[in-house]
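Hi,

I'm pasting everything inline rather than attaching a file, because the server keeps stripping attachments. The sequence lines come first, and each chain or strand is labelled.
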Amino acid sequence: MIELHNVSLSYQRDAAALSNINLKIEKGEFVFLTGVSGAGKSTLLKLLYGGLNPSRGQVLIDGQNITRLSSSQIPFVRRKVGVVFQDFKLLPGRTVLENVALTLEVLGWGKRDIGKKVYHILKQMGLEHKINTTPLRLSGGEQQRVALARALVNDPKIVLADEPTGNLDENSKESVLNILKEANIKGSTVVIASHDKRLTENSHRRMIVLDKGRIVEDSNGRK
Amino acid sequence: MAGNKAGKRPKLTREGFGGQVAYFFNRAIANIRQNILINLLTIGTISLAILIFSLLLLLYVNLEKVTDKWSERVQVTAYFEGELPPRELKVLIGRIQSLEGTGKITYISKSEALKRFRERLRGQDALLEEVSADILPASLEIQLKKEFRGDDALSYYTAALRRVPGISEIQYGEDWVQRFNSFMDFMRLLGLFVGGFLVLAVVFIVANTIKITIYSRKDELELLGLVGATRLFIKIPFLIEGILQGAAGAILAIALLFGLYYGFIHNAGSLTNFNPLENGIVFLPLTYMAYVFIGGILLGFLGSLASLKKFINV
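And the predicted assembly:
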């Protein structure tokens, strides 16, 4: 589902953000990407949805080499990938419904079907009563769940989550993690970038540890 | 598997051109509603910029009218020996009429010439005692068509007129015509310069206002790209917004201009000795209003297009 071959990326000369990354994530896997701040986790995630281009190497998503795609083809790859951003990236002027609906509007869904689908996913996340609320009136945990709903509403093949539990209380963390596990059970390949050790250590899932832009450990979690 | 459910997805309800246009139009209206304040500010700025340009246009239209009237005074007088019998006069007028550029021809007989002469020298009867109609020549006053009132065209016309048999002399106030045409050339150049400068200023103001509007929503543009929207999908609602802003700005500018015009024609007479209505001051003709409206739409569209290029990196 996800393959990286000899991928390197430098933001500045002589300062590699990622160095010679080789990685394969199978369809249906649930993977943690960990490491200290600045290790290259977010950069690696950005490569997976075409937010960045590697300086060297190849990135394959669902069999497509996205490093060779033109900018007009990238949107069609992104439709297969649901991304949960560290800063949520919710539009403050739009309601919860409109924020989540965005993903489906882009896909060309009709208004009625969008309404049904968005209500359904918000109900799963316990947010159906907030459907007409704007994001700024929501708590951090609620905002994160709206961001999750937007990423998952079209049942993407791949879900990428960048620090999805950062700044959340324990209950919210648990809830967010459960939502991602559920998406994985339904068939999505899930990659979570997190530096939260408690979250990753007890999960018994595959864990890829990055340090200074290199993979220093790749364990399957079943110790 | 979640990702394999594509086949079970609901059928698109906005399939077809009409459905897509409706979707984008609704999206643009919703965007305007959600960003009402910045949209009102943009429309206000666009309308003020267009108003300044329209004021110049109104001035130009009225100046053109006045100068058109003045240029009617550009006429050629053709003299001939003695008083021609009516038949010969008719033939001569026919020949002149057949010359390209000839407008209205007025015959001034010897007695009519004397009458005019007396009117001009009214109060100086001593000078007129010895003057009789015989010493004044009869003539034809020829008004020229608009396109033949310029220096070159006038020279061409008078050369042709001189070749008409029976005409002994022609006069057309060469100096006055040259001065008038020089003045008109200067006015046109000035209008072109000021108009060109104003067009540039309006384009600059409108493009930057729209750029600021779009900049304030750059997060939205970025997010649309991240959830898989194509460039066109992101751009179209913004372009429709630009068109609507431009159209609203132009309509508002024309309404404000009419308000100013209305105020001027009803108050200028009481404040000064100038009566605008008596002097034929008119509002912008419908064609010019249509130009302003289309110009506003184009400005909105092109301003949005140029700004979007800078912010969309999908």
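The first strand of chain A starts at residue 2 and ends at 12.

If the labels don't parse on your end, tell me and I'll reformat.
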